[in-house]
Design brief:
Chain A: Its EC number is 2.5.1.-. Chain A: Pfam families: Prenyltransf (PF01255). The complex is a heterodimer of chains A (288) and B (290). In chain A, 53% of the residues lie in helices and 9% in strands. Chain A is built from 10 helices and 6 strands; from the N terminus they run H-H-E-H-H-E-H-H-E-H-E-H-H-E-E-H. Chain B is globular, with a radius of gyration of 19 Å. Classes of the chains: A alpha/beta (288), B alpha/beta (290).
Chain lengths: 288, 290
Amino acid sequence: MGKPDETMTTGVVATLLKFVRRCIIAVLSYGPMLGHIAFIMDGNRRYAKVRSMKEGTGHRMGFSALIASLLYCYEMGVKYITVYAFSIDNFKRDPSEVQYLMELMEEKINELLEKRDVINKVKCKINFWGDLDMLTEPVKLAAQKLMASTAGNNGLVFSVCMPYNSTSEIVNAVNELCAERRDIAHKEHLGNCNGHAANNGAHSDISVADLDRHMYSHGCPDPDIVIRTSGEARLSNFLLWQTMFTHLQNPDPLWPEFSLRHLAWAILQYQRVYPYLEQNKKLAKKQL
Amino acid sequence: MLLSQSPAATHPQLPTSSSSSRRTHRSAPPCPRAGAAPAAAASLLPPGLRAESLPRHVAVVMDGNSRWARARGMPSAFGHEAGRHALEETVRLSRAWGIRALTAFAFSHENWSRPKLEVDFLMGLFERVINDSVAEFLRDGIRLRVIGDCSRLPASLQRTAREAEEATRSNSQLDLTLAISYSGRRDVVQACRSLAEKVRAGLLSPEDIDESLFAGELETSRGSYELLPCPDLLIRTSGELRLSNFLLWQSAYSELFFTDTLWPDFGEADYLEALCSFQSRDRRFGRRNL
């Protein structure tokens, strides 16, 4: 059960693999490189089941695959990576599995905090997108600590969606925007009573940009591709607002099997349709 | 204010979260699972399809008309006319196989950027299609609805659409929704504006807004009969692997089916393939199968 990055660090085979990796990355860099990849990391449990492993092993191997993908993306010049780590719907799973996942997340977050080699290598800024109040207290604190300790980094931006639902994100943005408008209207009303002129802030029509400002993803460009592993073709309430022009891919490998060659293939697919995607984006943006 | 149709209310067997948070958004997923499609006798279904696992609501992104026409050296109008026939066939099959609702993405808000000649042709085509189809809708029990930003549509098309909606209001065999000048993001924004107005008027507070209430403000939830705003299956033709701003909120849990077939060529075989693919999917809604 070796981790992918460990096998690459020793021996002739490792050197050869490193050379091949550099070649693949060099070839890909001839085409347009994407700025933002999002992953729906599906298939951890099935991976363990198929190999008759203990159920939690699949998730652990999935984490290794995630770190490996992060490093490959960084080498290729991808600036933003977003992953669907835990959906709000996943709370409906068996309580023992939910607890295991919470403990695993806490363990891995603390590992990143303590070891820091991955973070330092890619100068990673880590965000957590989701309602952190839904997490158990130790996980929430660890997540907040990790965000704070990487806030000043200016390299790869790694956004972890947990616990997350796109519909919750939209409703949260609507709540905040409505509250903001109500407060502005209230201040204007007080201002009017005191004889000050209204600045019309509460009455201007709400726009796409206004809602965008309150999304967790504000400040991050929309994903260029969303990759959902294990062959399932649905978004499962992930980044619905942000994927207007995103290229959707659903390769068959289960998430722990996702490797450099799958990533390279995904990028090649994107580069193939890039001119058409860009043309449509330009036309669409005229109407936004 | 419309009574918002909470999926949990219409489908009581769906589990809800037991979280005690004050926020009620942690409830059943916004879209119910596919159940048995009513109406169709098993004998009407082609081999390979099972009535109990058909989607109740299918959405189609009718992409590829222009490319189809270009491949034949014809103007895009030719492709759009051919696309009309493909839609009519899809409506006929949906009704025959007992699919409860069909939503077709006829014209997106982004399509206003197309050449004026093409846009004018399409507006005329929509009006002709709706006019020509009303009698058939009445005969076959099809209820028509048009969603989208109607303010940009020609007045005659708006009138035709409203009259057809009115005439077919009491039909119940198939709900056909045409999305014309529709944008998923704009739908979300208009729902937000509507709620912000209610907050401003003191009718509710921002904390009252949950997923169910929000979903009730979307265009697809308008009309007292709308119980199936969310597609179980979303089909996109012509090989485009994108959602392109269609039914953004409503397709949260939709199974996606992408086919390289251009829309005018989409027929019974392609529809069958999409439905068979849907039947083989394992829909978990974030949970595990028991």
